[in-house]
Amino acid sequence: MFYCRRQLAAAIPPPPPEASSETGSAPVASAPSEPAAQAGGAVRGYTLISEICEYNPRVTAIAIEYDKELQLAVDLVDRYEVTAQLDAVSNYAGEELPDSIQPKAPREIVRAYTSDGPNVGVMKKGNYVILELDPYDENASAVYLGYSYIPEGGEKGQSKEILPYGDKMIYEVRQTLPVKYADGSLTSTGDTFQQAGYQTQIVDDFTQHLYESETPGLTYKKLAYNLYQPEAEEGETYPLVVFLHGSASRSNNLEGHDETLSPLYNNQGGITWVKNAPGPAYVFVPQYFDYPDVETNSINWSHPDITTMTMEVVQQFLDDPSMKIDPNRIYISGLSIGGRGSWTFLRNPEYSDYFAGALILCGSGGVTAWDVITDEELAQLKAVRTSGLPVWLYHNDTDPTVPVAGSRNAYKVMLDIPLDAPMPEPTAETEDYRYYESADGKIKYTELKFKPDQVNDNLGIYTPVGHWVWENTFKNKEVIAWLFEQNLQNRAPTAFPG
């Protein structure tokens, strides 16, 4: 399912009534009969606001700016209508993608209220009306995740492309009933509304960079990355989260196409550390490149050049006096091939001591093939355990892409359980998950269960069945808070068994 504004809005309680400066009563949206509405003809600007959902960014709100302060109103849904049309976007080869078209259709307004700025979820007197939209609408997309096409067969290739709709995203906003200004007059229903801006929540607060290593001996020397920096207060330091994306978010490395935003667009793995964390943090989201001279996806987080550059950037951050990073609170998290990559960093003694904790999703212990696991790989996994590093693993029990056996085996190795032995009894179990925990609480493993009734027919996305374990994990604030509680100063060696 999408984890977007629709679910968040339901948790926002109505604000306490404010006394009207003229009547002393609680303000409400005015009925059209009192007083007369203003004459039409004004042009009012609005901003489309998107946020990261599972699968792609989607327009989930519209902020309309008026010329003067509006009276507080919390239920304006019936006063506006919105339609949206998505015209065809073209892939990198210049070919229009018919699948990207969505015909003109209504957008469902699920909540509408006044605010003091383009601030979704903030209900106040001000010059703005916020229209929250249903992210499940088929015409809600702001970016199309397209593909390059193989010319001979016309079939989709493996190269995912990030294709913003931009001016192909055509919205129409109409006001059907007036709204009361703070001075008691009414807005017009004859105004014209024009798009004046576009923003993507949280993503717009990241900056994009390209790091080029000068380390001798590296074959691959480029690493793109996204960086979020909190507003630092004097004398304070903040955690740093290193998030490693999955294979779908790698850069195609094509000239003229900057895909650095892909790891932020594809899922909430990059933004959850801003959205759901218990406090401010630096967030580092690197991105590796494909290279045309090597097999697709053979250059990834497990490649020594990529790990070297990633840690070089981390060290640059630590050496930068303008970045107030707490060196005792550096965390690593990754999903899919990024989960496997997280293990690569943790199993490397040169890097593992940087990290105070890890949240690893469908990472399979970083082992390529468990049936031929080497003594060195086993020793590295056991070393993670004996180092006292807190690790929480997540996996779906029906993952068709990365078999769940990999995470089960990693858990067993770290608890010194033979690989051919069954999993121990869960520490806790519900109809949704099995939860395992070592005796000292340092090693945790949550396995989500297949639930065939949890299917979004509109988009064909199953939850939690399949590979997308992050869909559930990254909206779990308790899990995020657990990671932020870890501190290198509290890390102590641990003896087997677990």
What does this protein look like?
With 498 residues, the chain is α/β, with parallel strands linked by helices. It is built from ten helices and 22 strands. The strands form five sheets. It has a ten-stranded mixed β-sheet, with helices on both faces. A five-stranded mixed β-sheet has the order 5-6-2-1-10. The protein has a three-stranded antiparallel β-sheet with strand order 4-3-9, with no helix packed on it. A hairpin with a 4-residue loop joins strand 1 (43-52) and strand 2 (57-70). The protein is elongated, with a radius of gyration of 25 Å.
Q: Rg, please?
A: 25 Å
What name does the CATH topology of the largest domain carry? Rossmann fold
End-to-end distance, in Å?
Answer: 36 Å
As a percent range, the share of strand residues is 25-35%
Number of E-type strands: 22
What is the domain total for the residues?
2
Q: Tell me what the CATH architecture of the largest domain is.
A: 3-Layer(aba) Sandwich
- What count of helical segments does DSSP give? 10
Task: Output the strand order for the largest sheet.
Answer: 11-12-14-13-15-16-17-20-19-18
Shape: elongated
Biggest sheet details = 10 strands, mixed
Biased composition (Low complexity): 19-36
Domain Esterase Ig-like N-terminal: 46-186
Keywords: Signal
Organism: Anaerotruncus colihominis DSM 17241
